[in-house]
């Protein structure tokens, strides 16, 4: 089991008072970190689920993803009490009055014949916007949570329009509450892009790079950039975000989708006054897509960045510890859950921890780092797969195999059959 020891690297003044919890990357931009945390091997009977990411120490890698499960003080407190490793609050902006939600704003896809109401929920679409609560209210609740849970990790998700001054003001006000890190929402697929926010930034690498530079010049705590999957090559914006000073990236946000058409009314779902709009798709059905996107980012990070100082938070269809283990095997440091909490409740984290520990015991892993990224090396190109298989076939043909039984002798191949069982 891994225990923790600390070595001082660089000090500083931090809004959250969590200087002891931060680890930074080596690069030319100003650092936002204070201590490096190393793991040392000790004897133990239970696998250690704790992780330290960009200096943020969490009891387990399971993080509440930004959305309804982090929308106010009451639900975020519940998440901490249930044992989640960290909480990312619902995205905030300076002017919540511009955020107007509609109802219904969710639609679900079920497995089974014709989407039977009794079938398992495998897909979830939402057309919900970011927080519609006044920023000042959210800031007071962030501060209250940090006062009550000083040793737990609270991450603020933020989004603004294409305006440097607005980003700087938002960062300053949010940091004053004592939150431990920022997640930048560059990926909301609906509603906000109409105001040059969310995915409108994440899909434009030039715009993304410029805004990331504004953010990282202002922020004094770790910054994660949340990536949109609605792009051809997700590794490109991830590269830009990291190169522009972000300590980590999160992926994926929801996938642009239309849940379906009601065959009785002929209207799309979710239906608002007879109309709808494309929204974000999540839940179990997106898990394979998320694995592919996370794999692409992880391979890029491994080849181009110092993995010790940059982090990857994986998101997409996590409902079991096995789902989370797959992301960690690809290189994720943490795993976010949002829709899973909406379907199964905050107590889900307990089963996630049990599942993940069972997986670790099966393979004799004592810490998350023991298996993080282990499966990444087994991804290659199709051309390389063809080459590997051809070589394997040739090797198998070259191996001499003797007869297994007297009944296998044949008259025509008697000499060759004899030679196949000669040792020299």
From TrEMBL:
Cellular component GO terms held in the UniProt record: cytoplasm
EC main group: oxidoreductase
EC number: 1.3.1.2
NCBIfam families xrefs: PRK08318.1
Pfam families: DHO_dh
UniProt keywords, alphabetically: Oxidoreductase
Biological or metabolic pathway of the protein: Amino-acid biosynthesis; beta-alanine biosynthesis
Annotated GO biological process: beta-alanine biosynthetic process; thymine catabolic process; uracil catabolic process
Keyword match Oxidoreductase: yes
Species per Swiss-Prot/TrEMBL record: Cajanus cajan
Entry-linked PANTHER family: DIHYDROPYRIMIDINE DEHYDROGENASE [NADP(+)]
Domain Dihydroorotate dehydrogenase catalytic span(s) in chain numbering: 49-360
Name of the protein described by the UniProt record: dihydropyrimidine dehydrogenase (NADP(+))
InterPro entries cross-referenced by the UniProt entry: Aldolase_TIM (IPR013785), Dihydroorotate_DH_cat (IPR005720)
Gene Ontology terms for molecular function: dihydropyrimidine dehydrogenase (NADP+) activity; NADP binding; uracil binding
